C-alpha cells in the first residue's frame, strides 16, 4: 500500500518531465527537418529576411550575403519599372558626380589607348595644370606604382586619380621629346562639372546655349550664360537639349520659371503615396518675352522633357527636332547604411496640359524598352514625321494646339536625321571607333603644330587643307577597314566633319566642337528660319469655318 502511494506521489512529476522533453524534441525536429517552413511561410518582406538568414545559417558552402544582396536587389527592382535601380556603395559617388556640380580629383580628361592613359585635355587652372601636366602626356605610374597594361581600365583610373580634396597623388608621365618619365605631385581639388557646355552667338542676334544635363548648378549657370549673351546683344535664343538625359526636376522647374509669365503650370507630379504637387511660375523671370526655340531629339529625357513640355504646353517656344525619349517617371534617392542606395520610382510627372509622356513598358521585361530607340530607327521615325506612332491620347496646349502623351515630346517642327552622303563605309568607320582613334592619334602626333590655333575657324580651315579624310582612309585600311574609294568620295563631307570635329574637341574644348558641328546643322538652320519669320511663339490653330 505504501509503495502504491509513493508511486502515485511521483506520477505528476514524471508527466511534467515527459511533456517538457516532448516539447524540446518537437522543436528540434521542426527546426532541423522541416527547413524552418513555418517561419518561411510569412507574408511580405519577412520571407526574404528569413531566406537570407537560412542561407547564411544552413547552406552547404560559405556564402557572401552582402554580395548576394547586391545581386538580388536589382532583380527585385527590375520587376517594377525600367528606371527603379540599385546603386552599390562603390558606384554611388560616380553616379552623383555629374549632377552635383563638382567632384574632387586631379582635373584631366583622358582616353585609354593601347593599355595606357593618354591625357586628352587638362582643366584650365585645375590641379593637374598647376602641377605641370600637359595634354598629350601619357600616364605610366601613380604613386610610384606602374600603371600600364591590362590593369588600366576606366574604373581603376578613376579610383586612383580621384580622392578627397587636398590629398596628394604622384603621377609619372611620358612626354613627347623626353626620353625619361617626368613626375608631378598633384594636390587634388574640387573640379567643376558643367551642365552648360556651350554659350555663344550663332549670328548677330541669336544666342545659343547647350545644356547637357540638369544638375545642382544648372540654374545659376543658365543665368551666367544669359547675362553673357545679353552683353553681346542677343534678341533670339536657342536652348539645345539634344542628348540631354535629364537630372534634377527642381533644376528644370527653376529654369522654366525664367521664361514663363506668372502663375503658369510648369509640371505636376503624382503617385500612389505621393499627393499631387504642382510647380508653377512666379512671374519673376527676366526673359519672359524673348523669342525662343528648344531643340530635342530621341536622347532628350526626363528633366529635359519637363522643360520642353512646359514651353510647348504654355505656347512659349517652338520645339524643333525629333521625338524625345519618353521618361515620365520620378525617382527618389533612398540611401542604405552601407552607403549604397536605390533610385525608386515614387510618382509620375505630368505636363501642363495633363499628359504623361512616359512611353509604354512591360513589368519585369525591359528588353523591348531598352531597344525602343533602335526600333524607332528601323521603323523610319528618324527620317519621316509620318512614321511617329502616338500611343497616348490627344491633349491641348493653352492656345488649343494638339499634343500627345504616352511616349515623349513630339516637336512642333520635325527635322529628320541628315542622311546625305551616308554609306556603309561611313557607318562602319563611325561605329567601329576608328574615327575617334584616328582623331586622337592625329592630334597626338601633330600637337605642336595644332597648338598654334586658338580659334575654331582657324583650326578648321587648317584641317581642311591637311586632307584628313585621305589620311584617315590610309589609317583605317591598316586597321581592318578596307578602302572603298567610291564610298569615301560620297561620304567625304560626313567623314571630314566627324574627323575634324573630334580633332577640334581634342585641341580646344566642347564649345568649339559645338560651334563647328552647328555650322551646317539643319536643325539650327530651321531655328534661324523660325526667328526670321517671327513665329517662335506658337499661335492658336486657325479654325475652319462651319459649312452650312
Q: What is the overall shape? A: globular
Low-confidence runs of at least 5 consecutive residues? 32-43
**Which bin fits the share of residues in helices?**
40-55%
Terminal Cα separation, in Å?
123 Å
Oligomer: single chain
Based on secondary structure, the structural category is alpha+beta
Per DSSP E runs of 2 or more residues, the count of β-strands stands at 21
Strand % is 15-25%
Question: Mean pLDDT score, rounded?
Answer: 87
Topology:
Elements: H1 2-33, H2 37-40, H3 46-58, H4 65-78, E1 85-87, H5 89-100, E2 102-105, E3 108-113, E4 116-122, H6 127-131, E5 138-142, E6 145-146, H7 154-161, E7 168-174, E8 182-187, E9 189-192, E10 196-201, E11 206-211, H8 218-231, E12 236-240, H9 249-257, E13 265-270, E14 277-280, E15 292-296, H10 303-313, E16 318-321, E17 329-335, E18 341-350, H11 367-370, H12 372-379, E19 394-396, E20 402-404, E21 413-414, H13 424-431, H14 434-445, H15 447-450, H16 456-465, H17 468-478, H18 485-490, H19 492-507, H20 510-518, H21 522-532
Parallel strand pairs: 11-12, 12-15, 15-16, 16-21
Antiparallel strand pairs: 1-18, 2-9, 3-4, 4-5, 5-6, 5-7, 7-8, 10-11, 13-14, 13-18, 17-18, 19-20
Helix pairs in contact: 9-10, 14-19, 16-19, 19-20
Amino acid at each position: 500500500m505504501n509503495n502504491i502511494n509513493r508511486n502515485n506521489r511521483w506520477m505528476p512529476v514524471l508527466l511534467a518531465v515527459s511533456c517538457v522533453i516532448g516539447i524540446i524534441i518537437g522543436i528540434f525536429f521542426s527546426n532541423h527537418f522541416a527547413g524552418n517552413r513555418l517561419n518561411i511561410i510569412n507574408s511580405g518582406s519577412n520571407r526574404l529576411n528569413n531566406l537570407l538568414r537560412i542561407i547564411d545559417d544552413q547552406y552547404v558552402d560559405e556564402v557572401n550575403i552582402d554580395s548576394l544582396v547586391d545581386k538580388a536587389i536589382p532583380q527585385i527592382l527590375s520587376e517594377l519599372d525600367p528606371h527603379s535601380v540599385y546603386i552599390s556603395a562603390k558606384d554611388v559617388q560616380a553616379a552623383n558626380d555629374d549632377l552635383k556640380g563638382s567632384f574632387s580629383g586631379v582635373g584631366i580628361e583622358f582616353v585609354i589607348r593601347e593599355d595606357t592613359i593618354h591625357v586628352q585635355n587638362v582643366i584650365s587652372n585645375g590641379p593637374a595644370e598647376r602641377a605641370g601636366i600637359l595634354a598629350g602626356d601619357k600616364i605610366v605610374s601613380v604613386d610610384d606604382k606602374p600603371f600600364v597594361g591590362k590593369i588600366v581600365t576606366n574604373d581603376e583610373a578613376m579610383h586612383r586619380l580621384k580622392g578627397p580634396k587636398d590629398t596628394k597623388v604622384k603621377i609619372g608621365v611620358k612626354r613627347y621629346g623626353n626620353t625619361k618619365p617626368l613626375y608631378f605631385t598633384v594636390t587634388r581639388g574640387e573640379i567643376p562639372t558643367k551642365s552648360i557646355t556651350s554659350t555663344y552667338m550663332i549670328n548677330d542676334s541669336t544666342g545659343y546655349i547647350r545644356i547637357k544635363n540638369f544638375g545642382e548648378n544648372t540654374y545659376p549657370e543658365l543665368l551666367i550664360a544669359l547675362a553673357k549673351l545679353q552683353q553681346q546683344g542677343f534678341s533670339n535664343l536657342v536652348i539645345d537639349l539634344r542628348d540631354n538625359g535629364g537630372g534634377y526636376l527642381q533644376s528644370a522647374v527653376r529654369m522654366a520659371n525664367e521664361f514663363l509669365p506668372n502663375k503658369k503650370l510648369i509640371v505636376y507630379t503624382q503617385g500612389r503615396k505621393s499627393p499631387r504637387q504642382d510647380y508653377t511660375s512666379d512671374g519673376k523671370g527676366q526673359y519672359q518675352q524673348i523669342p525662343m526655340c528648344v531643340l530635342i531629339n530621341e536622347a532628350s529625357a526626363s528633366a529635359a522633357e519637363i522643360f520642353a513640355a512646359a514651353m510647348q504646353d504654355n505656347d512659349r517656344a517652338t520645339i524643333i527636332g525629333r521625338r524625345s525619349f519618353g521618361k515620365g517617371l520620378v525617382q527618389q534617392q533612398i540611401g542604405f547604411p552601407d552607403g549604397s542606395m536605390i533610385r525608386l520610382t515614387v510618382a509620375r510627372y505630368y505636363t501642363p496640359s495633363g499628359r504623361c509622356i512616359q512611353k509604354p513598358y512591360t513589368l519585369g521585361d525591359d528588353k523591348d524598352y531598352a531597344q525602343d530607340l533602335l526600333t524607332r530607327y528601323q521603323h523610319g521615325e528618324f527620317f519621316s514625321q509620318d512614321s511617329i506612332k502616338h500611343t497616348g491620347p490627344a491633349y491641348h496646349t493653352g492656345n488649343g494646339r494638339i499634343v500627345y502623351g504616352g511616349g515623349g515630346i513630339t516637336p512642333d517642327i520635325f527635322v529628320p536625321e541628315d542622311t546625305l552622303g551616308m554609306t556603309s563605309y561611313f557607318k562602319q568607320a563611325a561605329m567601329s571607333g576608328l574615327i575617334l582613334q584616328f582623331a586622337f592619334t592625329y592630334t597626338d602626333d601633330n600637337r605642336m603644330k595644332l597648338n598654334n590655333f586658338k580659334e575654331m575657324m582657324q583650326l578648321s580651315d587648317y584641317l581642311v587643307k591637311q586632307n584628313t579624310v585621305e589620311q584617315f582612309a590610309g589609317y583605317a585600311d591598316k586597321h581592318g577597314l578596307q578602302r572603298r574609294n567610291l564610298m569615301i568620295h560620297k561620304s567625304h563631307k560626313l567623314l571630314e566633319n566627324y574627323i575634324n570635329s573630334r580633332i577640334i574637341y581634342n585641341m580646344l574644348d566642347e564649345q568649339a566642337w559645338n560651334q563647328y558641328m552647328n555650322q551646317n546643322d539643319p536643325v539650327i538652320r530651321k531655328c534661324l528660319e523660325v526667328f526670321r519669320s517671327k513665329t517662335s511663339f506658337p499661335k492658336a490653330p486657325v479654325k475652319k469655318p462651319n459649312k452650312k
